[in-house]
Design goal:
- The complex is a heterodimer.
- Chain A is mostly helical.
- Chain A has 2 domains: 32 residues, no CATH class; 127 residues.
- Helices cover 73% and strands 0% of the residues of chain A.
- Chain A starts with a helix and ends with a helix.
- By secondary structure, chain B is mostly helical.
- Chain B folds into 2 domains: 274 residues, no CATH class; 244 residues, no CATH class.
- Chain B is flat.
- Classes of the chains: A mainly alpha, B mainly alpha.
- At the A-B interface, α2, α3, α8 and α10 of A face α3, α5, α9 and α13 of B.
Amino acid sequence: MNKRELRTLKGQTLLLGAMFFASAVLALFLAAQRGFFEKFIEERYVEIPPHLKPLADAAEQGRLDRAAFEKLSSADRLILYDDWMRRPDPPPARTPSALVASDSGLYLARAERTIVSGRVDQKMRALSFLELAGSRAAIPLLRKALQWSIKRQTAEITAKITETLDRLERN
Amino acid sequence: MTERVARRGTSLTNRILRLWDIRARPFRALLRAYVLMDFRSQQYGRATASKPRDLVTPLFWVVGQYLLLSVLACAVLFARVDAFCFTLVNLGLSMLVIGTSLIVEFNEVVLDPEDLNVIGHQPIPLRTYSAARLTNLLAYVLLMTVALNIFPAIMGLGLRDTGWIYLPAYAAAALLGNLAVVGGILLLYTAFMSGRPGDPIREVLAWTQTILIMVAFYGGQAVFRDTQDRLEMAAYNLPQWIMYLPPAWLASFVDSTSPARAGTRWWILGAGVAFNIALWTLVLQRISIAYARMQPAGAAWQRATLPVLREAGRLGGSIVRLLARSRVEAASFWLCSTMLRRDYDLRMRSWPSLGVIIALIVLGLFADQLGDPFVDQNPAKTVLPIASIYLLAYPLPAIIHNLTFSRDHAASWILWSSPISDRVAFAEGIRKAVTYRILFPLLILLLIVYAGIWRDVGHALAHVAVGWLVVIGAGHATQIGIMRRYPFSSPATRGSIIGSIALFAGIVNVTAMTLAAVHYFAVRSLLSFTAYVVALAGLVYGLRILSKRVIQQRFAVVASYE
């Protein structure tokens, strides 16, 4: 088909058809690449600065200095969460309860964000955080996350949320 | 030949047409003409800078832009949000864009009183004309619906919470939603408004998809850079009011087909179909009346009279008198200001060059990266505010060069025959019109944004003052580099608008970015910043002196037109 023929109504319709066909093929290819897209969904945690290290160590022992903690900004308080998420397995067991006891709303919302937008291992760690925190305030949050996870058919996360929810409800 | 005609005469299509009392031959001829007009899309022709005889037609560009818009939106949303949010955003986008598309191409696809000038004397029954018009309209809606929804309809199959039924459910929802929007707009215009949208709104809406692509592109970057995961959390905690929006009803239907949902909400689909039938019955009634009442040259004629001009000797208002130093300067300032206000083409060509700065500010606001460079030394926080004032250099060459072109270029003989005694003053008037009419308001906006974010008016003023020097300097550099011809003296031809100044614009940008890098280091101490501002002012003054010489020698001389 030459340029003159392509300029006709039939040629232009064919061009449009070819573009739609190519788009459909590309869309099918992209639809099959969910794993690739999911690789970019992860949280990045900042390294703890030296002036917050003593607080993180104290939280690890379950003895958070409330006066020093109260002086921190929300951003600094969240660095303590980041630090806990960065720790190698197994993470300190007392930190979550110490942090949630000091600022329940902030840390529960932060853990919820990880469950929604973190990598699978990060989601698991956030669920451990909620479990170790032992706060019943996390129950409604976990129920919502459970519905969301069931709908998205993420079996591993669903199982872990169910387990965490069971433990919290039994406490 | 006779056999072919006879075969055509008894074909199924013809029998159906005859059943509806529609004459087949005029119907086919009209439909073919309307489809041709769709490809030529006059309004989009301007926005896409393509001509009716180009191989790649305006319609092709528009379909391509819709595909790009939807693939960008899908790439940003895919795997990040659930099926409901994915569907909601894509259906909403589709309904918004098809609405703007219909208004933009109203003449081509719905109703154009100028049709009567061409076919009014032909024996074409009203029913046949209406049928051809409506068939073309539905084909247009279908084409746009496919272009806007092919990616979300297929890519959605790859989401975690969708099954195979998602594809037909999404396709049905998209078609219903778009038909409802088109029907609603047609009803609005034919029943309550003047019968057709005005030219200004169509010109502006012709850029909608370009703007949306920019939003999707820059917004997508903001999503990928966002450390707060706002998109994912917004999708997870959708506000309740969203559920009152029609795209949410349709998205709810599509989402209910998910394997994890208890049951499919077929009633939403049924209600949508019933609503569309009722709406389109009304639309067909109204549009048939509109076709029947069409008058030759009725509403299609543009306004023949222009606003009354000021009296001779009193050109321009108080702003012109305040800014212009001489009558010649005032004359060119007034001319450019008037054309910037009056010529839609010119405005449409000029606005996109400002888009980068606005996008940068929005991106910075969204990603919390508009830090005060006088206080914060974190490059992640200060690069965007510094870049935003140096990017102000780019629009100057683009807009001043655009002023050379006009659809009324033939009227430039007035400038040739006018006694322009001072070329420098005339060129200064052009520069000042662009500077004060377009870039000064943008600088004021930047001042307000920075003063609000930094909570320090002094810092914001100092920062924007540097931006002002950049604007003045870029204006003089443009006078030196590309200002050679009288404004509005050439027709806007493809490739001449940006292509011929690409190198110069590149040099201006590189220089501006180099200065931005120097600014970044200079702002760390008051002394070095002061020294930098003084040096920058010196550079601007040097450019001003040089520009005067160049303008004297090269502006609007015969050699510039050879």
